[in-house]
């Protein structure tokens, strides 16, 4: 089952495209879209086509920040029915957890996690699709939109440490600096941002407990727009847990609120298996991290869930036919 986005993911597409001197109409037709289709924010659209539209639009307009420019004017209302619930959450942490809980009502391809690391919180915000697709612009749009949600809820109290992207920096960082106003890391280990733990627990001045309960009941009553893909849901969990070394079937099942036997049965019904999905995600992340010369091979092994580098080397050889060192020597230029 193909991954679907809400059409709201392409909110502001026309404004950005036309501001860059691009005629969007031919591109819309190329990827199977129409203006009327995208006018309904709740319309479900194929993620692959939406991502391809962003990538092609960026190339056609020669703009390295196309997706991020779309995120710049995002509002809470662009989260649809979930926006009222987010507005009245007690803290930013509660709001982010609500985003995670209602991902299926937002965009199926979003994979978001909140990880406490002492006084710092790491918020990972990845775009995961089935089949896998990488996209600089969809990723910057997703991170930018979530970042703006945090800023809208906390105002001057939103003071993040950094914004991180796994891809390389554009030639001009003016747009990134204007939107994020904090340290920027490119060629990083994850997509997302870091902030003080205190920020997530700072009281939301707009919160109203009664309205939050009303909004939650309303959102819970909404039907899912499409049948859940267990394969995609598990891929997203593996994507987030693999770098932490916790991408086990027990951990994934617990995080998804089911027991291991139920998860195995549902994967069997989808004609796939947990180890097969782990290997698929690991291959995808392996190429991402191996192409980044800033990561040592030992660090790549850790990011793929291996505590012993020799185990990573054996797995890599079976998947790609050469050792990690040989692959990198052939495909990656050294930094500097």
TrEMBL record:
Keywords: DNA-binding, Transcription, Transcription regulation. Gene3D superfamilies: Homeodomain-like. Signal peptide: none annotated. SUPFAM superfamilies: Homeodomain-like. Residues 232-330 form the HTH araC/xylS-type domain. PROSITE patterns: HTH_ARAC_FAMILY_2 (PS01124). This is AraC family transcriptional regulator.
């Amino acid at each position: 089952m193909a991954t679907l986005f809400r059409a709201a993911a392409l909110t502001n597409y026309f404004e950005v495209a036309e501001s860059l001197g691009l005629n969007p109409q031919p591109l819309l037709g190329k990827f199977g879209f129409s203006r009327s289709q995208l006018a309904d924010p709740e319309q479900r659209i194929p993620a692959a086509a939406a991502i391809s539209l962003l990538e092609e639009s960026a190339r056609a307009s020669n703009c390295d920040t196309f997706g991020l420019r779309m995120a710049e004017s995002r509002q809470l209302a662009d989260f649809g029915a979930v926006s009222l619930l987010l507005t009245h959450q007690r803290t930013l942490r509660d709001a982010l957890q609500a985003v995670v809980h209602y991902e299926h009502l937002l965009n199926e391809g979003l994979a978001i996690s909140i990880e406490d690391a002492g006084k710092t919180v790491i918020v990972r915000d990845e775009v995961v699709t089935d089949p896998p697709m990488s996209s600089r612009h969809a990723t910057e749009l997703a991170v930018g939109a979530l970042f703006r949600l945090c800023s809208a809820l906390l105002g001057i109290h939103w003071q993040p440490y950094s914004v991180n992207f796994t891809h390389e920096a554009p030639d001009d960082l003016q747009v990134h600096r204007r939107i994020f106003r904090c340290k920027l890391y490119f060629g990083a280990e994850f997509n997302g941002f870091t902030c003080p733990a205190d920020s997530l627990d700072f009281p939301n001045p707009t919160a109203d407990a009664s309205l939050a309960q009303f909004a939650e009941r309303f959102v819970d009553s909404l039907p899912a727009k499409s049948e859940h893909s267990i394969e995609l849901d598990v891929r997203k969990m593996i994507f987030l847990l693999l770098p932490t070394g916790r991408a086990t079937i027990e951990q994934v099942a617990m995080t998804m609120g089911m027991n291991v036997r139920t998860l195995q049965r549902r994967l069997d019904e989808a004609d796939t298996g947990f180890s097969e999905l782990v290997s698929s995600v690991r291959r995808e992340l392996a190429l991402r991290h191996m192409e980044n010369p800033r990561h040592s091979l030992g660090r790549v092994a850790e990011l793929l869930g291996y505590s012993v580098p020799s185990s990573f080397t054996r797995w890599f050889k079976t998947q790609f036919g050469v050792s990690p060192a040989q692959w990198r020597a052939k495909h990656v230029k050294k930094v500097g």
